[in-house]
Give the backbone structure.
Amino acid sequence: MPPVLSASARTVGFRRRYVRQSTASLFPVSPNATSPKPRAGDSSGAIHITHVDTLASSGLGGSTSGCPTADCPPPASQEAVPHGPESHAGDQTLSEAVPLVGIARLAASSPAADSRRKSEERPEYFLLPVKSILNRCDSKRVPFEWTINPYRGCEFGCQYCYARYTHEYMEIDGGEFERKIFVKKDAAPLLAYDVSHKYSYESESSGGERPDHIAIGTATDPYQPAEREYGVTRACLEELVKREGLSISVITKSNQVVRDIDLFKRIAERSDLSLNITITTLRTRLARLLEPRAPRPDLRLAAVRQLSDAGLRVGVSASPLIPGITDREGELEAVAEAAHNAGAQSFWSGVLFLMPSSARQFLPFIREKFPRLTKQYEEWYTKDAYAPEKYRKMIADRVARIKQKYGFDVRRPHEKRHTIPCAQMKLGWGATAAL
């Protein structure tokens, strides 16, 4: 039994770094892309996000501006009040002024998770008690109804990571996203219940013609190093194996995904399944700079080959495409060619999307490592989360030409209708899904 299912870990507290709105001109608040705050009373533990950076800027994602739900950024900005040890003398702390509620309260009391790792550089792990593992994505701008994110936070520490703002729901600074990893407890039984009670085989968005789609890994990598110890992703897959007629996709930057080929093959026999690996560049040194703790590009390509050789449907995401860094002539094409040679059936890429919580991390990185691009990034990203429409259109046309050249599937990976009858197995909960 994975350690994540154990309730024996001791309870500890940790110092919080509360989010304060930067006053630097580099980070003005954009009315179209504000970082969210937690909803009062929300104790579900759901990750309030529609898609991670590789989806947000690609054909699998889309704009979330204006989305009224907690699954994506709120439409109106909220000025954050400085709190914590960095506040001026006499200021109240956040816990004194506004009691923690919902997911922030749960995170604050989450016990430490036992870890075999001894390195001083490893992140802190915590066991997060949640009520649900299958989380509704209410935005109509994205092509999936449900998300599964086995963890909150991601150790890969990608400089551009879109999902940093999910930590702000827990009143933790987005900069802690790769240093404080929350492991969701009891994933398998929760997922069994969720699929039986929430999932629909007749998606409203498709007019009842296809099942709801479940996207795994939209706000945290399901195969980050934590998975080796806690096995939450595999526990979820073991539950999905028992069902049929589902629509599922997985996205990751890790070659560890090949560990679960046995489960993927069993799932693919009964449900629609697409596996997707993100490769933003083939340049190893650049990849290490942008994605410090993610596996090398060649290891990810090898994983694509293994998945393809196993008869699984696999695609490659080159998202986000980073202006001035990974968009040079021939670079995107090289990733696509390598993906094609490795057996990928689909390929897509979209331009970098920066919410304020991500901009606070990424723009200083640009100033330090790519100073020649500072002016361009300030012009493009300090007032909007998106690059100019003209540039995005140019990249979209370029991707379309690449797809045509290599014969990549032009459909999104989960648009295919499943032909197996949508019957569901009884799991001891006394419930079966409506056909």
The CA atoms of residues 129 and 144 lie 25 Å apart. The first helix runs from residue 53 to 56. Residues 20-406 form one domain. Strands lie at 124-128, 135-136, 146-148, 151-152, 180-184, 213-216, 247-252, 272-278, 314-317, 346-348.
